[in-house]
Each structure stands twice: as C-alpha cells, then as structure tokens.
Amino acid sequence: MADLIHFLKASVQGDLVSWASQVAASERYGLSIAEVEKAILELGLLPARYQRNRNMISTRQQLRLFQSHAVVIGCGGLGGYVLEQLARLGVGKITAIDPDTFEEHNLNRQLLSSPRLLGHAKVDVAANRITDINPAVNLIPVRAAFGAENGAELVAGADVVVDAVDNVPARLALANICGKSGIPLVHGAIAGWYGHVATQYPGDTTLQKIYSRFQDSSGVESELGNPSFTPGVAASFQVAEACKVLIDEGDSLRHRKLHLNLLDMEVVEVPF
C-alpha cells in the first residue's frame, strides 16, 4: 500500500490523478480500478474524470459516493438513464434489477437499447455499458422481477433505491419494502409529455398517496406512450435526488411531488 501511495502522489497534477495513472497503478500493483480509485479518494485526491464535479461535490463527498450502494429497479426508459448517470457520477456500487430483454418497441427511448442488442437481457447490457464508461463502478446485474416476495432481499444493503418500474403494484410494494427496510426511495414515473418525481423516506407515505386512486396497474403510460426525451428528463431529476440523499446535501423532494409537463414547459410542485 505504501508503494501505491507513493506512486499516486508522484503522479498527481495539482490534486488530480489522471485515468492513465489510475490504469498504470492498477496494472503495476495488481489491483482493480475500484481499489485504486478508493486509494486516490482516501488520500484526498481526485480521479480526473470527476474534476467537473468538484465545484458542487467535494472530494470527501466524492469518496462518500464511491462508498455508496444504489439499487435501481428497472433498466428500461428511466432505468437506463439513471444507471448511466449514477455511474458517471461515481456511485461505487449499483445493483440493476430487471427481468426483461430488449424488444423493438424499446428502441425509441431506452438508452441502453440498440438493434444489435434485441433479445439481450437488459441487466447484462447494463453491466457491459457501465463497465465500459466507468470501470471503477461495481454493477451487479440481477435478472429478476421485483415483487413483494423477493423485494426485501433485492434492496438489502442499499443506501438509496431508485424506482424505475413500469407498474403501480410494483411501485407500491417497493415503497412499503423500502419503508420497512429503512431505505430512502427516489420515485419517478413518465407518460407521454409528462412525468413526476418524488423522494420518500422511511415513515413517509408519499407514494401511497400519489397512487391512492389508481385502478389500472400499468398506469397511464400504456395510454400516452413515451417519446425519447421524457425518460431522460425525469431520470435526471431522480439522479439529482439520489445524489442529495447519498451526500446529505440540499433539500430533497420529500413530502412533495415535482410534476413535469414538457408539452407546456411547466414544472409544478405538489405537496403531499
């Protein structure tokens, strides 16, 4: 470890350690990229890939993100964008949960999809993508459907859970399980030009109130569809919320829902 520290300190430019130096350290000392990243951050240095984070996220907070575990339920429209942004942000451990494979109707909006990947499991594609864009992130693919029976096991150990599921019963089961497990939940939903985001902490009942009158298990997405842009907008709000939860910064969307109307370009806050 002393040799690694000496190598990193000799490689630093200001307080930044370049990607080339990170790879060189990994190869020289037989360590994973994640192990090298951890050492860099614990020294109070910053992997250069995160330098544009620094005016809003301190190096200490970057270490906290690296040490965090986010669970993302769903790897489709919302989930693909959420996974990509969490990985680029530097969240060190991400569990991606989804039972499905990519189909042709996913191609208009799902970031991880492409014609050559039709028929491939979404979680496997997610794992390959995240390894490619940020090898320091440990993405754990779980090909399973989330439900009340297996939910507690699937979210165990999470610091935050991000809801990217596509049906109301699963959302309500997720809210109940996260509440019982003491895990903050960042909820998002989209349909057509519209979307909403909310953050629920243990003991809150925001999602239960949002969906108290919903009868159709698939929600309104089946009616309104989804274009290419709505998932990216809502997912970005979700990742911002997850980031705030993990670094304990700012005011979250607790006890309130942010309603997004991209047709009229209106954002309305609704208290709950």
Brief account:
The chain is an alpha/beta fold and 272 residues long. Helix content is 41%, strand content 18%. It contains 11 helices and 10 strands.
Which strand order does the major sheet show? Answer: 5-4-3-6-7-8-9-10
In whole angstroms, the N-to-C terminal distance is 51 Å
What low-confidence regions span 5 or more consecutive residues with pLDDT below 50?
A: none
Q: Which series of helices and strands comes N to C?
A: HEHHEHEHEHEHEHEEHHHEE
Please provide the count of β strands: 10
CATH class of the largest domain: Alpha Beta
Number of helices: 11
Largest sheet: 8 strands, mixed
GO molecular function: tRNA threonylcarbamoyladenosine dehydratase; ubiquitin-like modifier activating enzyme activity
Domain THIF-type NAD/FAD binding fold: 50-267
Organism: Syntrophotalea carbinolica (strain DSM 2380 / NBRC 103641 / GraBd1)
Protein name: Molybdopterin biosynthesis sulfur carrier protein sulfurylase
Task: Sum up the structure in keywords.
272 residues; alpha/beta; Rossmann fold; 2 domains; two-stranded parallel ribbon; 11 helices; globular
